Amino acid sequence: MKCLILQFKGAGIFDPRRSKDKVCDLNGKWKRNSFPTIQVPVGTLSKRHISNLLHVLMGERPSPSIRASLIEPITEIVTLAEKAHVKIESTKDKSGKYIQEVKTVRKSVVDAWPTATHEIKLKGKSEYLKGPILTWEILRVFFDGTGLFSEFRNLVEGILGKDALSNRLEHVIERLSHHRDETRSFADKCLSGGKTQFGKILKGEKYTSSKYFNSLYDSRDMRLRLTVTKGVEKIARLDGRIYVPVTNEVLEKVRRGPGTATFLEGGVVFIEGVEDFSENLIFGTQEPVE
Amino acid sequence: MATKSILFKVALQGHGIVNYDSNDQKWAWNAMVRNSERVNHENVQFGKHRYYLRDKDEKGEIYDRHLVISADCLRHNIFIDDFLFQSPNVFAHPVLLNKMIASVGALLRGYMFAQEGKSALRKKSCLNITEAEQTNDAISTIETFSRSGHREVREDENDTADNSFFKRESIGEITYAAKGSVDLKELQFVSLSELYDRMAVNSDDFTTLYKPELEKALGPIHDPGYYVIKNSAVQTPEYGFILSGSQIVFLVKELFKRLLRLSINKSSGGYAEVAEVQIKYVEDPLKHRMNIDADWIPLSDEEQIQFDPDIFYERMDDETARSYTKLIEKNLADSKKRSKERKIEQKAERNARKNAARAVLEQK
């Protein structure tokens, strides 16, 4: 029997205890703590990882490990993966875990509202708001199709003068907070016209800092949906080899495949060679886990 | 023989560090390397490292520390002129979205646009690249720097100074090496179907929005049809279109053009740029391997690239494909129905348990 030797480099594996945001959960239906995760002990890999890798190397489509899908893995290839042996060569720290690094990751659009805070002074009192800066352009899009935008501009011009229109909107809101009697009727119009968030800002009603601005961006209008779909996550990078006992038929199938594949998060796999299978060859390896 | 993929090796040279990691690296810095300056401060910037066990002595293990540029950083900088940013808001504008995904950069880099309530659009990248790892013997050190600028100070804090000191890892002349591959199979097919979880283009937008944009870059493209992977055990057809051989060669040239011109610059003074690229055409994956020294071609200009790409997909006639598709749709509907029935059963069971528990409480 022959043994196909595969070398993998830079294969990223997230710590399942830390990773919360998953792209597979687009509808936000999963409870964050009950995400399905693959628990892989240090020193080996999951059979599903190896099975998917072999699928790709043999020119077949891989089958998702976590998400529901129509694609079923091919039984013969799964059997090959079960017989594979893994040797991970990445360095571990003194506690026996792989050294982790920080990586930029994409995260689910759900719960991706910006959390950076910035200062705004309403009636002279500092408030720290969550969410992006409110600009004239965002307000224009927010009031689109209602005529309220030009009405607001007229109001600002009437109260603060024409020069105020060239100022930053947040600065204008700060100054308007000293003229609440004059802005009350416009604020009521916003509240009754479905533009509640802005009406509340003008009225200075009981302030719950994160809600005002985030609810403004949580609009059905996609142009206003400012979300931060990037985050950072800790990841361990694994280098190593996979030894797969194969027949000549399997090798012929690999020969017709692309000869290269991705592996886990950002890893690359190359074919290192084919040798006769022996116990010496797989010395120091581990079997993959379920 | 036709080419199935292209392997490449890249050598980079530069000065200083271009890819930093988090402050948590101080634990590895302090624990893994002897005779280095111990760092216990919070405001320290570390580069990304790999550690290798070199030897053991009476004091314990001796590790080598190599600086790396992560694969993500390399990929980001290879396509930096194609994608300034990727925002889910692009999803809202069909014209902008299709202009973006029909570009050369998007086909090469890959993309994913996912949105609640809509089918996700995704295309996997044909470029597989490892991190670039330090190859020379340069040793990094921790230096102290200062920064000046307005700081937000809390009311209860007395420190109002506008300058601060911080530490940062730094290094002089440095060389790196990375390797990777171009998967021509991934590049060849563009899916217009959700069947295999990889719809790259919405088929309703294909004729009006996507095709005209793509043809501007690649010339006339094939009409979509049903395709299966050649020699595959799975004969389920997938709706999409394949790129011609000349289009694939053009795209690969565009990819290596970006790779040859790769230059990573940091405002802190570090830079890294490509010094040398070598490629190898893979016709037989078991023979043309990364670890064999033969068949490598030095690449100085993307116009040197000439190959005949393999055809990985074959077209299935529409009638057979439709009969398969109908069967799949039926199976899918059945599976959804079963899932719904299972949920109803589970709900009924839960209610029965609740009622039983309530009855016991009432009896008490």
Quickly count the domains of chain A: 2
Unreliable spans of chain B are none
- The SSE string of chain A, one letter per element, is EHHEEEEHHHHHHEHEE
Structural class of chain B: alpha+beta
Radius of gyration of chain B, taken over Cα atoms and rounded to an integer in Å: 28 Å
Q: State the helix count of chain A.
A: 9
The gross shape of chain A turns out to be elongated
Mean pLDDT of chain B, as a whole number? Answer: 88
The ordered H/E elements of chain B are EEHEEHHHEEEEEEEHEHEEHEEEEH
> Gap between N and C termini of chain B, in Å?
82 Å
- What is the number of beta strands of chain A? 8
- Give start-end ranges of low-pLDDT stretches of chain A: none
Measured by residues with Cβ under 8 Å of the partner chain's Cβ, the largest interface is:
A-B, 57 and 65 residues
- Overall pLDDT metric of chain A: 80
Quaternary state, please?
A: heterodimer
The share of residues in extended strands of chain B comes to: 25-35%
Classify the secondary structure makeup of chain A into a structural class: alpha+beta
What is the radius of gyration of chain A? 29 Å
Count of alpha and pi helical runs of chain B: 8
